[in-house]
Amino acid sequence: MVQTTNTTSLESGQNPVQRFFAQVPLLGFLLGMLACVLVEKVIGEGLAVLLGLSQMPVLFGLVTVFKVIAGGVNTIFKGVAFETASLMDIPKALVYFGLVYLLPLTLVAKYSAGATNRIAYGLQRSSVLVSVLVHLAILYAVLHLWGTMSDYRVITLKLMLVAVLLTLSLNIINGYMGEFSCSHPGFMAIGAYMSSVFTVGLFVDDKVLGAAKMGFSLAYLTFPLALIFGGLVAALGALIVAIPSFKTRGDYLAIISLAFLFIVKSLFENVQALGGARGISGHPDWASLPVIFCTVVLGIWAINNFVTSTMGKALNAVRDDESAAEAMTVDTRKTKMIAFLFGAFWAGMAGGLLAHVLRYVNPAMFGIQKLAEVLAMVYFGGLNSVVGSIVGAVSISLLGEALRPLEIFKWIVIPLLLILVMIYRPTGLFAFREFDVRKILQPKGSRGEEV
After folding, report:
1. For the structural domain made of 151-435, what CATH number should be given?
2. 3-state class of 4 per DSSP?
3. CA 58/CA 45 separation, integer angstroms
4. Per-residue pLDDT for the chain (451 aa), expressed as one digit of tens each?
5. Phi and psi at residue 449, to the nearest 5°
6. How far is CA 97 from CA 51, 53, 92, 102, 363, in A?
7. 339 Cβ partners below 8 Å, 6+ apart?
8. Which segments within 90-215 are labelled E, that is strand?
9. Which of 49, 145, 355, 356 could pair covalently with 361 via S-S, beta carbons 3.0-4.6 A apart?
């Protein structure tokens, strides 16, 4: 259906940057990002040398900036000598960011708007599925080209994508269901260990799990089965929390789920058949970037369909008023049980991916710090929002890496940022924002046409 919109009225409440890019569709921004990574691949190293940087900035120049800040912090608190010359790295990093990222993105996105609007309009007229696949292909090309410029970028991208999946799975429970669960690192641990037992136990000679039971050239094709196995076992483990806690009300789920987390962590620490506190290592290198990207895209699609389905609407009704939902014939116990197991399944899938990205797994990876990280991602991005979970996971992941030079002080900066968000945006940055693919991919041409 084609509707005519008033472009002037839409732009009236926008700031100058929004007005400048008002006619640029998502396809235009993706092509601009693709231009950025191509520019960096061609001239990045040479430009870094020309600017006098020791190396090509690995994270948009943010790491360079915070390394300088870390030097100042160490001077104040530790008495370490601060090199004044390093202050010049900040303007150099900013110039690099402007020339490599900001300028190409602005030029390509803005001046290709007419063409990209026509393409986006044609794609949506032909098939929404085709439009989605084209956008995803360009997005993957951007991530692949950007990541392959250094090993650090690749691992950062992989961990960020895993964080997106984990955050989405927790938002099902803490956001859409309206409960407060602390058990997600436990589900993640179960998924990580069970998928490790599947892959390492069957296909790798390991000191802990013994000799390989099977071996064939296409063994990597079983990796999806390993992830699904880990997710299913995590969902079964969720029954241990769900059965007793859903008979209670209030904060009891938080207490029971936190106890479950400690039980799971202690269990894996003491089961020597699974390596005990040392864990399991030697995982096959099967968690490549395309595998993780496809798994996360599938997870986003499945979770978004779940929360927008009839079951998802029933879940929202239970969250808003459980008694009223029961009066409207909603089986509240069944609804909460399904949602809890569904969230645990995807947390287990995320755990399996994490284990194979790092190529080892041990109980220390799934403690209180992991719980704090995923809760920060959920509440920073916004409850009841697939978009919010994606934004929260990406933001906190990149921020954590950028602040790494600050060492222990980064755990002061991130909580302060969260406090500010909770004060000025109590529900998060993008709370209650629906993930509408048609709306996201629609053209914004001068003809004012929306599909």
Report:
1. 1.10.3470
2. strand
3. 11
4. 344 444 444 455 567 777 778 888 999 999 999 999 999 999 999 998 898 888 888 887 777 777 767 666 556 655 555 454 467 778 888 898 899 999 999 999 989 988 999 998 888 888 888 999 999 999 999 999 999 888 989 999 999 999 999 999 999 998 888 888 899 999 999 999 999 999 998 888 878 888 878 877 788 889 999 999 999 999 999 998 888 877 766 677 888 889 999 999 999 999 988 888 899 988 999 999 999 999 999 999 999 999 999 888 888 888 888 788 888 888 888 888 999 999 999 999 999 999 999 999 999 999 888 998 899 899 888 888 899 999 999 999 988 888 877 767 777 788 888 888 888 877 788 877 788 888 888 887 544 444 3
5. -100, 135
6. 12, 12, 9, 6, 39
7. 172, 173, 176, 177, 306, 311, 315
8. none
9. 355
Residue 309 CA neighbour count, 13 Å, CB half: 11
**Cβ atoms within 10 Å, residue 419:** 10
Q: And the tokens for 368?
A: 């209180």
Distance CA 173, CA 222 (A): 30
- Give the total residue count for the chain: 451
Which of 402, 334, 433, 432 is CA-nearest to residue 156?
Answer: 402
Q: Which residue has the tokens 């001046």?
A: 111
In the numeric block, which tokens belong to residue 375? 């809760």
For residue 273, the SS3 value is helix
- Quick check: 177 and 245 in contact, CB under 8 A? no
Rounded to whole angstroms, what are the CA distances from 127 to 28, 114, 372? 19, 20, 41
The residue ranges of DSSP E strands in 158-241, in sequence order, are none
* Residue 346: C-alpha distances to residues 9, 115, 319, 433 (Å): 42, 39, 21, 21
Q: Which residues contact residue 437 at a Cβ distance below 8 angstroms, ignoring those fewer than 6 apart?
A: 128, 132
Residues in a beta bridge with 210: 206
Tokens, residue 294: 């496809």
The burial class, CB within 10 Å (0-12 / 13-18 / 19+), for 95 is: middle
Strand partners, 449: 4
8/12 Cα distance (integer angstroms): 6
Could you tell me where in the chain the CATH 1.10.3470 domains are found? Answer: 151-435
Question: What does the alpha-carbon distance between residue 202 and residue 282 come to, in Å, rounded to a whole number?
Answer: 12
The residue whose two tokens read 């990796």 is 223
User: Residues near 90 by Cβ (< 8 Å), separated by ≥ 6?
Assistant: 64, 65, 68
Neighbours of 266 (CB within 10 A): 11
